[in-house]
Amino acid sequence: MARALRPQLPGGIYHVYAHGLRLLPLFHDDDDRAGLLRLLGQAVGVCGWRCHSYCLMTTHYHLLIETPEPNIAAGMHRLNGFYAAEFNRRHGTRGHVFERRYQTVLIESDAHFATAVAYIASNPVRAGICKRPEDYPWSSYGALIGAAKSVPFLDRSFLATFHPDPQRAVELLRRFVDAYIAGDRAA
């Protein structure tokens, strides 16, 4: 049976995630993580994407991607295919690296967008890797709030939806993420 087609929309915003095969590590070391970020930057450039958020965990990753053109499938094929080839070459393995196709959730509102940013930022906290999301070096959250150096492809323009003043926008994002994490811990 053929797989269902994924929605691909011009101007679509997607929470994208992918897991390593059998939940094995997708990243063995910081060189693997840096490699994925490099390839993500290339995909952003080639596809014209806007990357609003990312988090690279050990067994999976999360992205928040906006596609001005309807090309999420082509870009993800490029990103995951190139990463799998580099991963296999670096580690002397072959075959599948990813459990299955990447997954997408279409973002349908500003509130959904903000929740996706908070969800992505909270991953290392929920996993017990760090106490504060800005302390995790393989997440864009620190760069979004100005606590860490940013990668060139990270698009922070969405912060204006929190407030037109950049400092106030960062403060409101921090509060939102903190409240999300506090609510998540209570669950």
Descriptive keywords:
187 residues; 5 helices; globular; Alpha-Beta Plaits; 4-stranded antiparallel beta sheet; alpha+beta; 43% helix
How many extended strands? 4
The CATH superfamily bears the name Transposase IS200-like
Structural class comes to alpha+beta
Question: What can be said about the biggest beta sheet?
Answer: 4 strands, antiparallel
Helix content: 40-55%
CATH architecture: 2-Layer Sandwich
- Taken as a percent bin, the fraction of beta residues is 5-15%
Could you state the order of secondary-structure elements as H and E?
A: EHEEHEHHH
CATH topology: the name is Alpha-Beta Plaits
Distance between the termini: 38 Å
Q: Mean pLDDT, rounded to whole units?
A: 95
Order of strands across the main sheet:
2-3-1-4
- Low-confidence runs: none
CA radius of gyration? 16 Å
Domain module count:
1
CATH class: Alpha Beta
Tally of individual helices = 5
**Overall geometric form:** globular
In a nutshell, what does this entry contain?
The chain has 187 residues and is an alpha+beta fold. The protein is built from 5 helices and 4 strands.
